[in-house]
Amino acid sequence: MRVFFILFLIFFLGINSAFAYELVLPKDRKTTVDTNYAFFIGKANRAECITINDERVYIAPNGAFAHSIKLKDGENRIALKSNYNTQIYRFYKNKKKSSKEAILIEFDEPKNFIVKKDNTPLRNTPIDYGMNRISHLFKDTNLIITGQKGEFYRVFLNKNVEAWISKDAVVENKNFFEPRFITMNSETFKNASKHIIEFSDKLPYTIEETENEIFFKVYNPYVSEETFYTVNVKKPFKYTYETISHKGTYVFKVTEFPKPEENELLDGITILVDAGHGGSERGAIGCLGDNEKDINLKIANELKKILEIMGANVVMTRECDGTVSLDDRVKIAKENCSNIFVSIHLNSIPDIKMDIHKNKGTSVYYYNENSKELAKIVKNSLVTQLNTRNDGVRQASFAVIRPTEYVGILVEVAYMTNPVDSVLYKKEEFPSVTAKAIADGILSFVIAP
Questions:
Q1: Residue 395 forms beta bridges with which residues?
Q2: Residue 1 pLDDT greater than 70, yes or no
Q3: What percent of the chain clears pLDDT 70, i.e. is strictly above it?
Q4: What is the pLDDT, as a whole number, of residue 47?
C-alpha cells in the first residue's frame, strides 16, 4: 500500500508539474508600481487553462502567454488561476501627483548666457523629450535669455522666433563681447556643397527642412531683433548633412549619398550595424524568458555576413555580449564615416492594455527626413519576408538615429512580449531570415536611382 501511494504521488506531481505555468513577470507576488497596468508574461502547457481576474489568457502553440490587467490607485488584488492552483498577486499602485504647469517668468532685462558643452539641444518647446529639437548647439554659443519656465530658459533668436534650452546646459556670461558678422561664401563639388558663415564668436542656429530644400539659419539678435543669415540648399534625393563650428565659423555641408558603380551592389558603402542593448542592459524579456539583447546580436552578426557578401564595409558596435553606451555607438559610427546606421531591436508592450492582435509585428523608426525612405523600404522588406504584421514607420527621437551625418533607422523586428510573435522569433532560422530582409531593404535603398 505504501509503495502504491508513493507511485501515485509521483504520478500526480508529474502531471501537476507538466501543467504548471511559469511566470517571467511579475517576479514578486507583492509589489509597488507607478504603472497603469499589471503585466503577466510566462509559459504554460497548451492544455492548461489560465485566467487572470477571470479573464481567459491566450496560450500560444509554444506555451507563451502574456496578459495585462488595469490597475486602480492603491491596493489591487489579482487572482491567477490555472487547472491546479490559484495564486494571488498584490500590486500597490502609487497615486500620481498632479503636476501644475510651470509659470512663464519674464526677465526685466535680457541676460547673456553661454552653452556649457557641445551637442546641446535647442528646442522649440520647454519639454525635454519628443520631437522638439531644432538644432544642437556648440560649446560657448552665445545666447540672449529673456525668461524662464520650469527647468528651461527662453532663448531670443529674433522677433518672430524663440527657443528653449535646459537651465543646466548654460551659464551666465560675465565676459560678453558682441559677436560680429565677418563673411559668408559657398563651394560646390561633384556630390556635395559646402557653405561657410563666419562670425567673431559663436551664435545660435537652426536647421529646417521642406520637401525640396534645407534651410540653415544663424541668428544674431545682438545686431537687431530681425537679423539672421540663411543658407538654402536644394535637397538631393538621398543625402546627409553636417554642421561644424570652429570659434565663430560655421560650415554647413550637404552631401549626396554615394552611388555604387553598376553591378557593384554595396561597394564603397559603410554600414554601421548596431545590436541593441547588451551586457548589463538586457532589453525586453520574452514570454519564455529570452533576453532581447541576445536575439539582437544574433541578427546583427548574420546581417554583417550578408552585407559583406554584398560588398559593404561593415562596422559593428558590438560582436559579443558587452555594454556599449549610446554615445559610444554614435561615436563609432561617426569615426568610421558610416553612410548608414541600422539599430536592431525587438519591441515590448508599453504601459497600455495589451492586445495580442495589435501589439505585434514589425515597425521601423527614423528621426531625420533623410532616413524616412530607408525606414519605409526596410519595413516593407521585413513584413514581406517574415510575414509579420505591419506595425508602421514612425518618427522618434532615439539618440542613435538623431545624427544627420548618416542615414539612420531603428528596427523593431517583432514583439518580445507578444506570445504570437514569440513563435516567430524562437525559430532557428529567424536571425538569418531577418538579416536577409534588412540587407535586401538596404540594397534596394542604395541602388534606387
A1: 366
A2: no
A3: 96
A4: 86
The CA distance from 436 to 442, in Å, is 10
C-beta separation of 132 from 396 below 8 A: no
- In angstroms, the CA 34 to CA 109 distance is 42
Angle between helix axes 430-447 and 372-386 (nearest 10 degrees) is 140
C-alpha span between 80 and 377 (Å, rounded): 43
Rounded-to-integer distance, Cα 207 and Cα 214, Å: 7
- Euclidean distance between CA atoms 339 and 257, whole angstroms: 8
- Tell me the backbone φ, ψ of residue 194, rounded to 5 degrees: -125, 130
32-70 residue pLDDT tens? 999 999 999 999 988 899 999 999 999 999 999 999 999
* Cα distances (angstroms) measured from residue 218 to each of 112, 207, 243, 358: 17, 9, 12, 45
- Domains annotated for the chain, with CATH where assigned, are 2-93 (2.60.40.10), 104-172 (2.30.30.40), 181-256 (2.60.40.790), 270-447 (3.40.630.40)
Q: What average pLDDT does the structure give for the chain? A: 93
Which residues 6+ apart lie within 8 Å of 413 measured at CB? 299, 344, 345, 346, 347, 362, 382, 386, 388, 425, 434
**Per-residue confidence (pLDDT) for residue 2, from 0 to 100:** 52
